[in-house]
Specification:
This protein is an alpha+beta fold. The chain has two domains: about 140 residues, no CATH class; about 200 residues, Up-down Bundle (Four Helix Bundle (Hemerythrin (Met), subunit A)), CATH 1.20.120.1760. About 60% of the residues lie in helices and about 10% in strands. The strands form three sheets. Strands 1-2-5-4-6-10 form a six-stranded mixed β-sheet. Strands 3-9 form a two-stranded antiparallel ribbon. A hairpin with a 5-residue loop joins strand 4 and strand 5. The longest helix is centred in the middle third of the chain and has 30 residues. The chain is elongated and about 75 Å long.
């Protein structure tokens, strides 16, 4: 039995009881054998810490014992109360590579915290720390409420991704027909849903290989399709193929170049390019990716400068790719390098220090 739950809790978090949430988390961690209180809400990274530190009980900041991994792989009902060592949530910080952020060990009892506050805490905990300015500053508030409503309604992340896919196709068609203003509506809806589906998957522990492939595949493929269709639509409206054609070629080439540079950086240096130094994280806010180009086009259309905004987007795409290439060369020349977010107290080091630090119960 990979999970043994003690006690009882009737409250829900994002439509799930804490016990069901833990079951979904543990199902994705085949080596973990866990004893947990029925009210325990624990982050994925913290469960990984417990798996690597069997016999040490995680307690909430209020002192309630939440969970412990079995030492011999066989969880027993009295293990949580009998564990000789404890570690308090928030004791260690670690680097979450998937979300590009530093975070603390997290565990609370749903019986002891405000439900609304915990909803916000969990939602914020699954947000990427380094991303573009629209995703970072505009989408969080509406995405929180939509995610919470969808979770309560038991809507799956794959359904959200599928709706986003339809919006992506509709935007492409409208761009190609020169209906730029209309196209921007499903385009922005798609980018919003692209934020929501991932957050919904993480807070409800419903990630799937199919959904992950569809989501990331669509993220990579659709921007060049949009820019081709947009270029055609700009020509229909403006009639200036002389400037638009080289501009769209530059946009597409720069997009591919930027993606290649980012892939090479990660494969050769071990982490995402935009978390190397603080300036790279800042640059990620405005790098010429989908949301930033959409923002440029939207402002240009409102200002009556559609052609000019398209050319500006192309120029910024080239500049962004060149900056990425320069940063790759600089990092390569300074090897070995590390992310400014990793610090010295990441999960690996915390694990090695853990047996010396927990207080005796």
């Amino acid at each position: 039995m990979p999970l043994l739950v003690t006690g009882h809790c009737d409250r829900l978090i994002f439509g799930l009881s804490p016990a069901e949430r833990l079951r979904r988390q543990v199902a994705g961690m085949p080596g973990l054998r866990l004893v947990a209180d029925a009210s325990a809400v624990i982050s994925e990274g913290t469960l990984q810490w417990l798996e690597q530190n069997p016999g040490i009980a995680l307690v909430s900041t209020s002192g309630k014992r939440l969970a412990v991994a079995a030492v011999d792989g066989t969880p027993t009902r009295d293990l949580l109360d009998s564990a000789a060592k404890t570690v308090t949530a928030d004791t260690f910080h670690y680097f979450n590579r998937k979300l590009r952020r530093r975070e603390a060990l997290f565990g609370v009892s749903l019986d002891e915290v405000d439900g609304d506050a915990l909803h916000r805490t969990l939602f914020n905990s699954v947000y990427k720390g380094v991303t573009d300015l629209v995703t970072k500053f505009v989408w969080p508030a509406p995405a929180y409420w939509v995610t919470r409503l969808l979770a309560a309604a038991r809507v799956t992340p794959n359904i959200v991704t599928a709706v986003g896919f339809l919006c992506m196709l509709l935007a492409a068609v409208l761009f190609a027909r020169g209906q730029i203003a209309l196209a921007l509506v499903p385009a922005w809806v798609m980018t919003f849903l692209d934020t929501v589906d991932g957050k919904l998957a993480r807070v409800t522990i419903r990630s799937s290989p199919i959904g992950n492939t569809l989501d990331h595949g669509m993220d990579i493929i659709h921007p060049p399709i949009w820019w081709l269709c947009l270029a055609y639509g700009v020509v229909l409206r403006e009639g200036n193929t002389t400037m638009v054609q080289p501009a769209v070629v530059a946009m597409l080439g720069s997009y591919v170049a930027g993606r290649v540079v980012e892939t090479v950086f990660k494969s050769q240096l071990g982490f995402n390019q935009f978390i190397w130094e603080p300036m790279d994280a800042w640059f990620r806010l405005i790098v010429a990716r989908r949301n930033i180009i959409l923002l440029i086009i939207t402002v240009g259309l409102i200002s009556g400068l559609l052609l000019e905004s398209f050319l500006l987007a192309a120029a910024w795409s080239v500049s962004s790719a060149l900056i990425q290439l320069v940063r790759l060369a600089q990092a390569w020349s300074r090897r070995p390098v590390r992310s400014f977010l990793s610090g010295d107290d990441d999960l690996t080091l915390a694990v090695s220090r853990a047996p010396k630090s927990p207080s005796q119960s």
